[in-house]
């Protein structure tokens, strides 16, 4: 039967066998390696989070939520402990609230903001290779308007609020090159031109 295959048929058959072997090969379970190397916070003590909740899920409300976040973070002073960060919030709460409301007003929103410092429940979250498990954490909660929209949160202390800054344009499609080692190998066999 091999003799009856056309000249290009043998490389095609070999390529199909390789694809079948790759498809059947055992794959590592997702997350197993990451979980083994990730640091896990054992207790929420010594942590202060920032939690900003948008008025709604509208595009405008979600965008202003991030502007409020930026205004709050710009006014926070790094402290040496979560207690110092909380003390800063207590001392400067009126200024932080004014900053949030200034952002809302400057962007044409008629609703206000509320700042609350307390203990709130949070889901699992990973920051820089450290897992903060679901649980109750101390947090500065900023509620915009009705507070019925998607939220954003980070860790104020230790300072792990990672803000990507301005939206950056993606490179043009002609600037990107995608390659597949498998396709390169198959092309080398003459399967693909």
TrEMBL record:
Keywords: Signal. It holds the Pfam family Spore_II_R. Residues 1-30 form the signal peptide. This is Stage II sporulation protein R.
